[in-house]
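Q: A reviewer asked whether we had any structural model of the full assembly, not just the individual parts. We don't, so I'm hoping you can provide one. Inputs are below.
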Amino acid sequence: MEGLVKSRLMDADDLRRVITRIAHEIVEKNQGTKDLVLIGIRRRGAPLAERLQQAIYQFEQVTVPLGVLDITLYRDDLSNINEQPVVRETNIPFDIEGKTVVLVDDVLFTGRTIRAALDAVIDLGRPQKIQLAVVVDRGHRELPIRADYVGKNIPTSLREIIAVCLREIDEEDGVILLERAE
Amino acid sequence: MKWNRKDLLGLREVSAAEIRHILKTAKPMKEILFRSVKKLPTLRGKSVVTLFFENSTRTRVSFEIAGKVLGADTSSVAVAQSSVAKGESLLDTAKTIQAMQPDVVIMRHSSSGAAEYLANLLKVSVINAGDGQQEHPTQALLDIFTMQERLGDVAGRKVVIVGDILHSRVARSNAYGLLKLGAEVTFVGPPTLLPPEMKALGVRVTHDLESALPGADAVMALRLQLERQQRGLLPTLREYSKLYGLNLKRLALTGKDTLVLHPGPMNRGVEIDSALADSTYSVIEEQVTNGVAVRMALIYLLAGGGNTNDVA
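A: Here is a predicted structure for the entire assembly that you could use as a starting point for your response.
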């Protein structure tokens, strides 16, 4: 990871509790799991959505449909960035027409990823509602977008980087704050 | 991996890692083709021009659909009926097209090396859609993509390509690509259409189809251009079909569930028997779908990211 570690904001237990709480909030707000689907935004939203699915199963005994969304082809900065991002697979093996879609991502920052994800989801059908769940909201929005479920609000400076680490991708669970290397 | 080529002219010049990167990018592209809304905003505002000096409706349409699904605007110039008929040179035609500010030019030409000539002169990205007898890289990429999808990794797999190898850019591009990925390639054809120098590519060469088939994981029949017979390279089509035509009985010699490929359009009853072409061994229709996915991947890689035009 580029940057120097400044502090550890959450450990594995904190992250587990956040996921459990968000899972409860999703079920509470939607009054159950009817028509509910989870869609994780690659990369780290995908394992997070899977954990939410497992958490919901534990207290509702319902397996909510789970999908994975790659937003690369919907990015608004493709012609500005030098390193071309790798396109990965979108896998949403169910119809989202009329469903309540909960988009899941690790960090909410400028809002541009979510804008791309909204466009990508809407191209797949017309859901009844789209909600957003994130582990960290770090501020600095550039678009009128907000999250419905937030693990933790962490005000940051633009020189800082928030890294949500997940054992499926990184070595261990946790959230760390880094300072961008000059 | 980082993609920094301006053009795709052939598989001879690209590395195994680049081929894998294209094929990996084609996978998510294929999923998009099965959506009800086949339209992405990715290349909105980009312009793709197909410049075909040789007729090929299926390849041209495949590229056009690929560009359109990605959100680019595509225009096609069928040069056979346009300025060339009025005596314009390839260079002048190309300069005229470039002056219209496209982002990608896709070219088919009957002369070997035409795409490279164009790519060296123009600032825009050029994709070779077939040049003379030299290369047809997108066809080979879609063939390899199809094999990978059905067989997994092609490394160590045996691929037999049968037909008019001498005149076939499809055979050459497939040989370059497949050998780079570690497959074993055998060329089969009559001596008049398969010169022994082909061995220099690193492939095996034989004139006896039945001896090449045992153990083959994939067999590709090439389209036999019917005018070859008029030029005296074949005695009769019937004899060709008898010796080199693929059919269910011959395929059984492989001893496997072998994939049957054909770049199309097929001469049923000449290089491939109808019953085989329509059998479950045939992946010929899948090749067409995969062709769009592979071409989407390439157009995305060449026009999608960053300052591709500066990388020349």
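A: Points you may want to mention in the reply: Chain A has a mean pLDDT of 94. Helices of chain A lie at 12-29, 45-60, 112-124.
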